Amino acid sequence: MAESLMQRLDKFLKEKKLLGDILGKIESKTGVNRRYIALVIFVIISVYLVVGYAASLLCNLIGFVYPAYISIKAIESPDKDDDTIWLMYWVVYGLFSVFEFFSDIFFSWFPFYYIFKCAFLVWCMAPISNNGSQMIYNRFIRPFFLKHEAKMDEIVKNLGERASEAADNIKENAKKATANLIFEEKKST
Length: 189
Description:
By secondary structure, the chain is mainly alpha-helical. The chain has helices at residues 2-14, 18-30, 34-51, 55-76, 81-107, 113-125, 132-188.
């Protein structure tokens, strides 16, 4: 099993993608195997996530930059299956961000919070079948959404109508205020 995992890791590190290309350049210049380079980078990032000053920023960059880059590539590719995979990631990421907003004040005090958060985000974006975002989406988010879809559609419709009414009221009040200013300006001259 460990050998199979190492073979899959080597295969992933040698793929002609962003990470594989960068590691390939470093490997060719230093002569150090890319597996060891990746391991050193992993250890440095892990230690930084535990004791670093801007661990939150680094964790959020890891959870955002690569998925955003790959999402754009997926949008531009003719294959639509990769679009679905990355849409699932962004739904899970967004939901996680909302929950984190309320819990971050408590969890950020734990020394290993950012390394666990980063590991969670990497699991969600991992290039494997049934990764974290697919698992969470299919097991929790999709069933919840399908069960409550009609109610959510009604809420969205009502919010849209209320937003439209509010915009119309603001527009009408702005017209009245402008007319009053013009009237007052003419009255004072």
